[in-house]
Amino acid sequence: MDPNALFKKMHRFYGVQDWWPGEGFEIAIGAVLTQNTSWSNVEKALENLRKADLLNPQAILQCKDDFLKKQIKPSGFFNQKSKYLKNLSALWAENSNPSRKELLAVKGVGAETADSILLYLLNTPEFVIDAYTIRISERIGFGSFQTNSKWKEFFEEKVGKNVGRYNEFHALFVIHARTFCRKNNPLCGSCFLRKDCLFGKMSLDSI
Ligand code: SF4
Asked: Where in the sequence is the domain holding 49, given as residue range(s)?
């Protein structure tokens, strides 16, 4: 199975995901807040920011540090993340269409965050690589690469530059990792991909 066949199977099973939740600069805020935490915690922080009218870069820049930290506390690491949000807001206030290089120069914005912002907010064809993508890809048998940037090259070469496909693919990886392909106890016996998956076949053969 290649990545395009995987996409079709996951798409058929889960249907259209239509990410990212939220719109405008809220997407960039969510991409920072989701670092090292679950989306349910991010939603609580976003709701606080929404109520405080803090979902835009100017408001975040003007906001007192302690107040901002309090609003984003549910997402964890709030001391760091409040600084990251201010850094990203400072860039955005000057340039609301930054390049990948400009985003990566912001302290607190790594490749996964930058590519999420580029793909979901700026509609730029950057394949988002995260731990879920790598876990599923390695188990299925796409290979093993040393770095996330090699995985990114792999997917972009196999899938081709396609914003809509990248958008759905990342969302499907996330839902599949949470539903079947869990880190510690993957549900291979009931997974619709088991016949095409190296790890799934091996684990079923050993039963
Ligand atoms: S068969 Fe198992 S390892 Fe393979 S994708 Fe499904 S849950 Fe993951």
From this structure: 25-121
